[in-house]
Amino acid sequence: MKFNEQLNIWFVTGSQHLYGEETLKLVEKNSKEVADGLAKSINTSVKIIFKTVLTTPEAIYQTCLEANNDNSCIGLITWMHTFSPSKMWISGLSVLNKPFAHFHTQFNRDIPWTNIDMDFMNTNQSAHGGREFGFINARMGIDRKVIVGHWQDKEAIAELDTWIRAALGRREFSKLKVARFGDNMRSVAVTEGNKVSAEIQFGVQVHGYGVGDLVEHINSVSDSSVDELFDEYKSSYIIADKDISNDHFVKSVKDAAKIELGIRSFLSDGGFHAFTTTFEDLHGMTQLPGISAQRLMQDGYGFGGEGDWKTSALLRVMKVMANGLNGGTSFMEDYTYHFDPKGMRVLGAHMLEICPSIANGKPKLEVYPLSIGGKADPARLVFSSQEGEGINVALMDMGNRFRMLINKVNSVASPDLPKLPVARILWDPYPNLKVAAGTWILGGGAHHTVFTQALTVDHMVDFAEMMGIECVVIDENTTIPEFKKELKLNEVYYHIAKGIR
Ligand code: MN
User: Fold this and answer.
1) What is the 8-class DSSP label of residue 385?
2) Is the pLDDT of residue 498 over 90?
3) CA 427 / ligand 1 centre spacing (Å)
4) pLDDT average, residue stretch 224-233
5) Residue range(s) in the chain whose domain bears CATH number 3.40.50.10940
6) Most distant CA pair in the chain: distance in Å?
7) How far is the CA of 402 from the centre of ligand 1 (A)?
8) What residues pack around ion ligand 1 (CB closer than 5 A)?
9) What is the pTM of this model?
10) Cα-to-centroid distance, 425 and ligand 1 (Å)
């Protein structure tokens, strides 16, 4: 996935005039060094830019306004090098609409035991300057990330990197456009939701289209571009000898290639980075998009089956957050269980649409009938998935709030499944299948998820906090009684926090 846009995080330092010019110069010099050090250490395409040392309410207010108005600024890092009386921050923090991480660090790692004097103490006062800043944020009820540690400490840098990726997700969600071909799969509840609430909460726009609008794009694809893409398929995937010489196979794959080019053209014309399809509305199309949805996901597009715009949007956002990290990210569904007491597992798959970014080798390109939908046999990529830790994430509209549910899982080697004609993954959920599935169901977790091996629980928790939505984690520490309590407490919190609206 390519990003052309340069996005920035502003580094601002809090101080005050009391210290005198010389100390403030040193504060600025140290701040630049810390900001540059962080800029070099983080692992994202985002630039960390040292902005200024703030010593007056007017300057703080002005900087916050500038951050709001700068489209390339996706968040701020605040650091109290010295004491910075926090009433100065009230007007600025009242208007700031970008997320920020309060980095509770100090320039020196160690106390210089033999040389420390009062000058040193006065200049390096983060220990209580940060507390003053923390108080005003707590007093004003402002959600923010607090990261504690020396600025060269790997753990602190990793926490910052994680938070910056969450800020990237927030930014993407705020401008994302989802194209929805057809509506929801009839009678399905969890894929529904309030699109007005979603746009208010996240910024995401969901635009519905009759499938005929897409068919126009598909029909205007030239035969030569279909042939070109067919050649690309042949060089990218494993195709059985018996298939390549089979007319039915070739026709089906060429139809699929034509659909892929049509969807690409539609999405690119409309500035969409995510889409949904539904097998109940394919009028004028020869087959359900299989390989096209798979390849578009691999290119960074969000996708949701059966009209699932929330999962589609979430997938795109998570692809952006994961950009540059190892491991794939895909649309996913808990499909069927292995209830063997010696090792209970989940087989994840979808009818067709699993992203090849999680594949453990070169996918096979195959054509099989689909038992629902009543259309021609769709082409799809078939593969098993990479092993290792990952998470499943779902987003539900609970009526008065959005809930994000996260389950930590471990993807394991799958036995040969010679008769299963779809991409698949086998995982052990944490803490075990019984508790994981029990809590997931108690929490109203969707059957559609985004599976990722690039992002961690921490990324998604930071992201959910930044978006102001409920977030519940199922991991090695989860128990059913505690989980139930958490849901009940959240019910009260979100009821009250929302006020009278
Ligand atoms: Mn589904």
Assistant:
1) B
2) no
3) 18
4) 98
5) 8-174
6) 85
7) 20
8) 305, 333
9) 0.97
10) 15
